């Protein structure tokens, strides 16, 4: 039973105070057809809305089966509207983008988990109103009478105890109105049907009880007496619209406005297309670099050099005294490592090249000392990477090999060293001589130090000199230009170093330097380490400055580096530095590509932000367009939270479609992009899409869609139910 005690309701609008209900007291039984009649503005609909909890009274109590509805929480009121009350409105209030059967099922799906039961009850309700054959039609294709019968079917399908009808026949012709009233009369045998109507004659004919209202008060009631109904235990079950129903409603609305939503999805996908293309090209470059690194791994050496201790600037001194850092770094590789390295599995190594810390006193016939920087030990894999332009390859310690640039040019140092002239034929260089002067003929004693002798004819013609001559000229092969760096140098064999050391190790300057703690040439003091290095420089012994290791393969390079790292872990005090030039180049290239990618993605992301804002605006417009739908859903017991989820879900679906669209457009564009990059860069396909990137972009698009819908969805959930229904 329902009991209304001293119900009062008033409205305030634009400074106008209007009383809608004054001290309404009613007892309503659990069955029967009760008609509420009266002029427009008498409070009939307001009374109906308060009973259905679409509106709250200012004062008084609404008691349903012993429970005061005014004390219910929002969730309990949602459950009350869903389980206890059903509405039949004058304008039907069906959701246009959902089929007839889905309109009827909607209220039940909120409270029932059994989908088969929901379908069965909906179909049975349609059969009762004689419209089963229209179950898959959209409401827009039905007549007014058919729509009202659908609304009745929706009301009776959920087995509500109370059916509230607001002018159910007001928009129908007389014949159809009679049909509707007969259905309501039949329903009133099992349920309480409260009907608001202007037609007093029909009310008298079909109603068990007539309540007449005027100016918010009950002026007559044909049956207002205490009922003898047994008060049932009033239980409010927890209800929640399941995600499947939310998705279904969202999808059906998107489908109804497919043209607008397709255009919106295409617009929103622009940012996804941009980012996808950037990431795919970046991936392509990275993949190409990976392949290139593997390709050149056995062509570019791993350089092993003496360990360099980095200086720390973390100490802070308040003192004003100069503190000169003492350099403890070494310029040659210690013997501990040399012994370790000699035992490394040589199957990983294609070739090894040693560079030595020794000065070569080389002069030319113009009595000019040549810079040691232009002289280097013989490169490996000469036949694979170089063309022999003139002469032959060296076979003796006193034979040299000249490398020229790919355009046959020379550095100024080389030209000066070999007395070359422009337009000379290359074969004129063959057999050109330079002299390597030994220490005793290059330095002279000057009291307690040594100075360089004057370079003259006597020095050049000294019989102790080692005559060096150019026997061959090489340059990088045409097809290796991109792989091998051209190095305009003069190369000598390792055996030349052995000859120099064997002749200089007992020279006067070396012998005396061993017993001095200062540099015999500059007279600067030397530490033991510095003294050792200077003796190596003078040729006292064979000191290796660095080792160039050419791996057999990419995998071999990794194994070599692992072995050297293992040495550094085991011999902390005798560590060496490792420089992987191919990896250094690779890392630098990757870093540049990543920076460019980040910048481009950032700018492309701006379009995503704009898309998100645009989606938010469209969603806001959608909220305004669908106020009626929001009101209908709220009248069925759909919670504010579920209303919010509904609009967010729509935008997530839209974001998913945008993401998929963007990825598909990117795939379509991959062909032309690969053709253009192949033509411009003369490389293989550079466009490489990755599944992980595509998934992340789709998720990003969905996330931005949800973000764009957040504020409009909050507005949707806070819409006033009555105003939504009445003003839509």
Overview of this protein structure:
The chain is of the alpha/beta class. It has 3 domains: 2-238, P-loop containing nucleotide triphosphate hydrolases (Rossmann fold), CATH 3.40.50.300; 256-295 and 588-727, no CATH class; 360-493, no CATH class. Helices cover 46% and strands 18% of the residues. It is built from 23 helices and 23 strands. Strands 13, 14, 15, 16, 17, 20 and 21 form a 7-stranded mixed sheet that branches. A 6-stranded mixed sheet has the order 6-7-8-3-9-10, with helices on both faces. β18 and β19 (449-452) form a beta hairpin. α5 packs parallel to α6 (174-187), α8 packs across α21 (640-681) and α9 (258-296) runs antiparallel to α22 (691-717). The radius of gyration is 47 Å and the shape is rod-shaped. The protein starts with a strand and ends with a helix. 37% of the residues are buried. The mean pLDDT is 84.
Summarize this structure briefly.
The chain has 23 helices and 23 strands.
End-to-end Cα distance, whole Å, is 33 Å
Secondary structure: number of strands:
23
Q: Residue share in helices?
A: 40-55%
> Rough shape?
rod-shaped
CATH architecture of the largest domain: 3-Layer(aba) Sandwich
How much of the sequence lies in strands comes to 15-25%
Query: Would you tell me the structural class of the helices and strands?
Result: alpha/beta
Low-confidence stretches: none
CATH level 1 name of the largest domain: Alpha Beta
Mean pLDDT: 84
Radius of gyration: 47 Å
According to CATH, the fold-level topology of the largest domain is Rossmann fold
Count of DSSP H/I helices: 23
CATH superfamily of the largest domain: P-loop containing nucleotide triphosphate hydrolases
